[in-house]
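@channel sequence for tomorrow's demo:
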Amino acid sequence: MPKLWNETIDAHRHAVREAILDATAQLVEAGGLRSVTMSQVAERTGIGRATLYKYFSDVDAVLLAWHERQITGHLQHLAEVRDRAGTAGERLKAVLRSYAAITRQRHRGELAALLHQGEHITHAERHLTRIVEDLIAEGAQAGDLRADVPPAELAHYCLHALTAAAGLTSQAAVTRLVNVTLDALHPIP
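structure tokens (generated this afternoon):
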């Protein structure tokens, strides 16, 4: 087959896959993770069920692919926040606020617990920890953040503390949680 034909086919497959994941996102938003069915995904995407099954074996596979895309998007967003101008402390605060906001939106329940397992989550957690750890190390080197505890330990502390944002009912509470977490990173006089 000519290269152009292969590129066209690949682009079409990618577009269909993205449309499937977009439809899944809309269905999750409308009714939650448990409400999504293959029939709904096919209908919302505008394709036949047989075509959908060529891309995904079942609804769990669709949800897993959707979730992987969500996680990748979150990591990209956090990296963009990290790369903005400012001191390491300012950028860390922005990253932690963004992470807490993401955590607050997290889906709950049995299916959500299933989606939050696996290699893509392990990879994402490592990547996220590295983002926070590097900012803490940079802040400690500048004398703005504590240097008496290894940055890796402080990064784990921050991320675990901010998982509490999932249970908070207001943005004000999330902001307070982020501030308390950041306060623990200041050097001890």
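heads up for whoever presents: Residues 15 and 38 are 18 Å apart (CA to CA).
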